[in-house]
Specification:
The structure is a homodimer of 113-residue chains. By secondary structure, chain A is of the alpha+beta class. The first copy, chain A, has a four-stranded antiparallel beta sheet with strand order 1-3-4-2. In chain A, strand 3 and strand 4 form a beta hairpin. Chains A and B meet through helix 1 and helix 5 of A and helix 1 and helix 5 of B.
C-alpha cells in the first residue's frame, strides 16, 4: 500500500502542470481519470506506450506535477487524481477536457464553422 | 513589413500550445499581450533572456504554437496575439491569466486558506 512521493500541492507550479499535460499520452490519462472522478484505477488499465521505463516516466511526471496520487499495492500500481488539484488551479482540467473534445487534432478534418 | 510564417489556426494542436505556454518567459509574454488586447508591441519591449538566439527561439515557438503573429519591420520585429486563437481554444488564455495571478509560484509564500 506504499504511496509514492508527491509534492505539497502549494508547491506545484503552473508551468510544470502545462508541461506534463502537453504530452498527449499524459493528457489522455488525466482526462480519463477526470471523467471517472474519485475512481482509482490500475495503471496497467491505461493505454500508454508499452515500454515499462516509458510508462514509469509518464506516471512520475504526472505525480511531480501534482496531478495524481499513485500507490504500489504489490500486485500492481494504482492511480487517482489528486482532489486538491482543482483547488490549486480551478477549472483547468475541466477546460482542457472541453478543448480536447472540441478541437479536432486531425489535420484532415474539415474546418469547423 | 514581412510577416513571419505561421501555421493555419486549424492545424494548431493543444499539446503544442501547452508546451509553448509551459515556459514561464513565454507564458508571461502571451499574458502581457492578452492584457493589452489588440495592441501590437515591439518584441524588444518584452523582458526575455538577453541572448538574441534565445529570444528568437521563444518567438518562433509562440508563432508555431499559433499564439502570435510577428512581422519584421526593418527597424525591429513587432508582435501581437492571433485573434483566431481564442476561437480555436476558447477560454484557455483567459483561464491561464487568472491562474497565473491566483496561484503563487513563490515557495516561501504562506499556504492559502
Amino acid at each position: 500500500m506504499a504511496e509514492l512521493p508527491i509534492p505539497p500541492i502549494g508547491d506545484v507550479e503552473l508551468g510544470t502542470v502545462l508541461s506534463a499535460l502537453a504530452d498527449p499520452h499524459r493528457r489522455h490519462v488525466v482526462l480519463e481519470l477526470l471523467r471517472g472522478r474519485d475512481a482509482e484505477r490500475a495503471c496497467a488499465s491505461f493505454e500508454l506506450p508499452k515500454a515499462k521505463s516509458t510508462r514509469t516516466h509518464h506516471w512520475r511526471v504526472l505525480r511531480e506535477a501534482g496531478l495524481i496520487r499513485q500507490r504500489d499495492a504489490g500486485n500492481g500500481t494504482f492511480v487517482r487524481l489528486r482532489d486538491e488539484f482543482d483547488g490549486r488551479f480551478p477549472g483547468l482540467l475541466t477546460l482542457l477536457s472541453e478543448l480536447d473534445l472540441g478541437a479536432s487534432t486531425d489535420p484532415s478534418a474539415p474546418p469547423q464553422r
